[in-house]
Amino acid sequence: MANTGKTTPPAERASFKSPFVYLMAVILAMVLTTPFLQDYLHIRILLDVFYTAISLSALYVVSQSKLLVKLAAVFAVPMIFSLWAAYFFTGEHIVSIGRVCGIVFFMLAIYHCGQFILGSPQVTRDVIIAAVVIYLLMALLWSNAYAILAFYQPGSFVYQEGLARDSRQFFLYYSFVTLTTLGYGDITPLTEKAKSLTILEAVIGQVYLVVVLAWLVGMHVSRKSK
User: Fold this and answer.
1) How far is residue 55's CA from residue 58's CA, in Å, rounded to a whole number?
2) E strand or H helix at 104, and its extent?
3) pLDDT at residue number 14
4) Could you report the per-residue pLDDT of 2-39, keeping only the tens digit for each?
5) Which of 60, 92, 115, 121 has its CA 20 to 30 A from that of 78?
6) Which class for 158: exposed (0-12), middle (13-18), buried (19 or more C-beta within 10 A)?
7) Contact 147, 171 (CB under 8 A)
């Protein structure tokens, strides 16, 4: 008897094995589960595990480009090293170097995802997921920028006591709030540099949403009209 149930096309089934899916899942898992697990696990170790997993997943994404993956690995290795070296060596400068490398590494990952979207002939599930991944990576990138600024210029931000147990968790929250222009007001940039970075992230976040949405809709309509 013929099977009347719907089957998932091979292209759609393959997208679940896409590196973009893994990277998006790890980032969302960190954002969603960390607040609930921090009462049972040390927040620093928990975030280090997640950031390591994110770095490896992003490397997996970039590995589709043989040329770019070598450059990305140059920055990913010191980024991961700085996370775990902090348990054995004192000094915040190691962490800061790792965050600088993290900014460059996430920029390379964003570039690769952007190239994938622009090079796709049609709007697929992978294209949409890649667009979401870029948005999430931008939040990670800016969180590192805020952390570096706060380290070298203390007092750049004022916030409520007990808002976060780890600076990465704190600045990741602030980055997402700024990127989405929610602006709850529980964290305030005080210095001109902090205000400038905050404005730049907010503008980039909104422009990205407008441009990408217009691009995806336009590409989908163009494909349908052919």
Assistant:
1) 5
2) helix 92-119
3) 44
4) 444 443 344 443 444 688 999 999 999 999 998 888 77
5) 115
6) exposed
7) yes
Phi, psi of 188 (to 5 degrees): -130, 125
Which of these CATH numbers, 1.10.10.10, 3.30.1330.10, 3.40.50.2300, 1.10.287.70, describes 18-225?
Answer: 1.10.287.70
Residues 117, 139: contact at Cβ < 8 Å?
no
- Each residue of 198-207: pLDDT tens digit? 999 999 999 9
The whole-number pLDDT of residue 225 equals 63
Q: Cα torsion at 202, 83, 132, 141 (round to 10°)?
A: 30
What's the sign of the alpha-carbon dihedral 65, 29, 168, 213? positive
The pLDDT assigned to 165 comes to 56
19 contacts 43 by C-beta, under 8 angstroms: no
**pLDDT tens for residues 144-165?**
999 999 988 988 988 776 555 5
Paired with 159 in beta bridges are 187
